[in-house]
Each structure stands twice: as C-alpha cells, then as structure tokens.
Specification:
mainly alpha; 6 helices; globular
Length: 196
Amino acid sequence: MSPRRWLFTVFYLSCWPVLIMALAGDRRWIPGWILSGWIVGVGASTVGWLAWRDPALLAERYRMPGTGGQSRRDRRLVYALGVGFLLWVVLMPLDGGRFHWTPPLPRAVAVAGGVCLMLGWVLVFRAMADNTFGSALVRVQRERGHRVITTGVGRSRLRAGGGPGPHRGPRGAEPGRGGAPVYGWVRHPMYLGAAC
C-alpha cells in the first residue's frame, strides 16, 4: 500500500473519534471514547491485517462503489447502507452524549452489547480469513478468481466481508446464484452489536 493510502487511512480513522466526540459535546463521555476506540481499533487492525495477509483484497476494498461493474440497484443499496451507517453513528453521540433522548441502558445490557461488539470483531476476522473476496463492492471479481465460499463463517446464508476501514456498509454476493446480493449482519461488527 502506498504512503498516500496509509495517510488517507490514518485521516479516515481519525475522523471517527473527532466526529463522535464533537457531536456528543462532552469530552468526558466514556461510551463515546469506547465506541471511538473500537471503530479505530477494528479499522486499523483490519487494514493492517489485509496489508499483511491479502493486499489484493485491501486494494479491492479501497475501490469506490460503481467501479466494478455493479448494477445500479446494488450501487444505490451500497450508498444507502453507507448513509444509514453514518446516520447511526451521528445519532448515537447526539442521544447518549448531548441530548439524552432515550434513558440509559441497564449496565447488563451495555455489557452484553460490548460482548456482542467483540464477538463481531472476531467474526470479521474469521470472515476475512475464509473469504478473500469480502469486498465493499457487490460484484463477482472474475479477475481475482472469485468463487463461492463454503467454509468457515461463509458456509452460512450470511455472506461476510471485512470490517471497518475503507468500506461503504454491509453487503456480499453469491456468484453461484445469479450474483444476487445476500445481506447479513456479519459484514460489519457494529451491525452485529446492534442486533444483539
């Protein structure tokens, strides 16, 4: 990966804590620091893992939606999921840190959510180890010998990609079944944490 790409990654990952804490309006809001650290930790470890183990997938994940022969419907869905994720990240600090629209969760629920986030992180890495085609784009990667993954977490109906980092949201494709996307919670561990 080029030095310019590394600088972009550092900038991109640095934006999340700044955004979250600025929206929260309170630098002492502990859940915001936990979420920020989690996003940066998952993103940095994902990019580092891919740079070391699968540079071709990392290059694929840096591609913009619409550059890989995706259908118009898939591009729209990818962008809609990205906007939904951004709105989700924006609403959390506005609610929890600044305006307190909802009551605080019981400690047991917060701990269970944290456990789900950590399990999601594990699933992301298992998915990347099993599926070298876990791209941010909904497309069959013929130039990389794309095939259906039937081992590890890929054997389920939930198709998985990578984790935070240069991505636009949860998506995957099953090339053996007409290339129709199959969407699931495993693609992004925060979605898994939100589902728990």
